[in-house]
Amino acid sequence: MHTEAALSYRSVNVDFPTVDGSIRILRDVDLDVPKGSIVVLAGESGSGKSTAMLSAARLLPWGAEIDGEILIDGSDVSCLSTGKLRRLRSRTMRVIFQDPWSSMHPMIRIGKQLIESARQAHPDWSKRQLHDLCVETLEKVGIPEPRARMKSYAHQVSGGQLQRIVIAMCLVAEPEILLCDEPTTALDVTTQQQILDLLVDLNRRLGVTIVLSTHDISVIRGIADYLAVMYAGTVVEFGPAMQVLGEPQHPYTWALLESAPERAEGGKRLTTIEGRPPRAGIAHSGCSFAERCTAARDMCREQQVSLLPITTGRQTACVRVQQRLLAHRPSEVIV
Amino acid sequence: MTNPPVLEAQGLGQRFSVPGRGDLQAVRDVSFSVARGETLGVVGESGSGKTTLGRTLLRLYTPTSGSIVFEGEDITRASSRELRRSVRRRASMIFQNPATSLSPTLSVGDILAEPLRVHGVSSGKEQRRRVATMLDLVGIDPDWSDRQASELSGGQRQRIGIARALMLDPSLIVADEPTASLDISVQAQIINLLNDLQAERNLSFIFISHDLSLVRHISDRVAVMYLGEIVEIGTSEQIFNNPRHPYTASLVSMTRPERIVPEGEVPSPLAPPAGCHFHPRCPVATTECQVTHPGLDLEADGRRVACIRPGALTVGPPDELLSIPVPHPLLAH
């Protein structure tokens, strides 16, 4: 089904500068986003999910350094020229942020902002054409009376409507990839569902590849084709979403799913993950989850860990799981 | 009832005037009671009035109508001096964001000692001893009392927020989205802590949240709010296994594979729709719903529902993929 990658990370490290020297935010990220799919990056705060996403658009803080390759259409984003980068951001790949209010200019009419966005992608179109495209796109994302809305300001519409408008502002460029950084976190549950339904619909109808970051497991359940679980700056598990949710292989994925209140029927205690994630930039040997893992052994703290295929389409970074499966099915694991 | 309720609200209303835009009825005709040792969950979307309700109950606002009885005493119009004797002493609040609800200039020890000092409960050595005991209780090293809140992680700060709420040994705690700013693994630690403390001290909780799964987990009874009103109130089982109000049903369905997504968004509380407030978004509304504003009626099983067609909208079965525990990838072998 999804074979070709729309976006690939190859051993990506990202370092942020601080007064005490640089700290490593992403470590050795390997990830393929299949064309036309919805991939969810799930993780807690500080896991690097936003950084992973924003590094694909090179929207990182000043001084951040990307090491490794981030490939879109065969070219490496990390070393694109300014002109090509501009073209990438205006046409190929668009970003949707968590808070729709801070994504829109408060004092410029919505229509003008949409047209500006469309013009970046279609510089030779006439104003009439751009205007029609914007109205059409507003209609596509479910905005009632799109012509009237073009004349509104951001504060005159509700949060859910505004997030739809932000999505429309991306769609006017007919992008191949949509990066959504916690797009529903700021919204109410019912509105959240409407936005997720819209994203799935756009993916199915227009074939746009979607990468979405979230910390909310119920979001993953509804929309993800593939799930990448991130912990301490790296991907620890990847696979088809339903498989990862139904049969998690990394102890962190398991613990994360288990700590959800849904799993504690009848007033049982919630399962907790003791301790806290390691602070960013602290070097450690072995698995970064070992300190909090109930199944950790000495080898977890000593051995170098990396994300390896375990079965068809699934990868995990747990050395113990890798070892166990290797003992059972050696031929499948060797790449 | 053999046990008098800790808190009882009767026809409670809270209206604010919005300059230039008229009156905003944030809470409208809300009645319920909370028994000792009980947790009442309050769910609703933003603008439903759940936060205003929590604040009005503790008399951070003075209600514009109705009454509040706390531990047998009517506090609806009590003066600030009277309040200091009753509800300020015997009830407390845990806020959503521990980063902004703890003073950035005081040490952790001072934050916890402040309630004792304000109410003249103890002094000097005794205060320090109580602070240390409390820190230990919420799982923070007592040696940390000299630290600033800013030196702590989000989960640790919320533990301090909980410790502060417990300093005067209250009978009631209003927790307003206490874990909304925390990661899910930390949320589980905080919820377990709240459950332990409740069992130990026979505390009553009013737990305000938009997270249905969480409310279901922690609450004995649940009130569902929409545009300032309670539309359904009953036991946790009643609300989540067999919701009767269409709004409750659609909220509950968000945690299930078959979702019933209401159309549009919550209308502005400045101009609530006529008739049943939910009718413009309700999938089973009739023409009568546009004109009749339903009262909160008692049903045979003891719950209350404000709908002229209760049970018209039903929810599908729960999501097995998320609710059934799976074996640990390593420990099961």
List the topology elements.
The complex is a heterodimer of chains A (335) and B (333).
Chain A: E1 5-18, E2 21-34, E3 38-42, H1 49-56, E4 65-72, E5 75-76, H2 82-92, E6 93-96, H3 100-103, H4 110-121, H5 127-140, H6 146-150, H7 159-171, E7 177-181, H8 189-206, E8 209-214, H9 217-223, E9 226-231, E10 234-240, H10 241-246, H11 251-258, H12 298-302, E11 308-311, E12 314-316, H13 319-328, H14 330-333
Parallel strand pairs in A: 3-8, 3-9, 6-7, 7-8
Antiparallel strand pairs in A: 1-2, 1-4, 4-5, 9-10, 10-12, 11-12
Helix pairs in contact in A: 4-5, 4-7, 5-7
Chain B: E1 7-18, E2 22-34, E3 39-43, H1 50-57, E4 65-70, E5 73-74, H2 80-85, H3 87-90, E6 91-94, H4 98-101, H5 108-118, H6 124-137, H7 154-166, E7 172-176, H8 184-201, E8 204-209, H9 212-218, E9 221-226, E10 229-235, H10 236-241, H11 246-253, E11 297-298, E12 304-305, H12 320-323
Description:
Chain A has 335 residues and is an alpha/beta fold. Chain A has a single domain, classed as P-loop containing nucleotide triphosphate hydrolases (Rossmann fold). Chain A is built from 14 helices and twelve strands. Chain A has helices at 49-56, 82-92, 100-103, 110-121, 127-140, 146-150, 159-171, 189-206, 217-223, 241-246, 251-258, 298-302, 319-328, 330-333, and strands at 5-18, 21-34, 38-42, 65-72, 75-76, 93-96, 177-181, 209-214, 226-231, 234-240, 308-311, 314-316. In chain A, the strands form two sheets. In chain A, strands 6-7-8-3-9-10-12-11 form an eight-stranded mixed sheet, with helices on both faces. Chain A has a four-stranded antiparallel sheet with strand order 2-1-4-5, covered by helices on one side. In chain A, β11 (308-311) and β12 (314-316) form a beta hairpin. In chain A, α5 crosses α7 (159-171). Chain A is globular, with a radius of gyration of 21 Å. The model of chain A has no long low-confidence stretch (mean pLDDT 90). By secondary structure, chain B is α/β, with parallel strands linked by helices. In chain B, α5 (108-118) crosses α6. Chain B folds into two domains: 7-219, P-loop containing nucleotide triphosphate hydrolases (Rossmann fold); 245-321, no CATH class. Chain B has helices spanning 50-57, 80-85, 87-90, 98-101, 108-118, 124-137, 154-166, 184-201, 212-218, 236-241, 246-253, 320-323; strands at residues 7-18, 22-34, 39-43, 65-70, 73-74, 91-94, 172-176, 204-209, 221-226, 229-235, 297-298, 304-305. In chain B, strands 6-7-8-3-9-10-12-11 form an eight-stranded mixed sheet, sandwiched between helices. Chain B contains twelve helices and twelve strands. In chain B, a hairpin with a 3-residue loop joins β1 and β2.
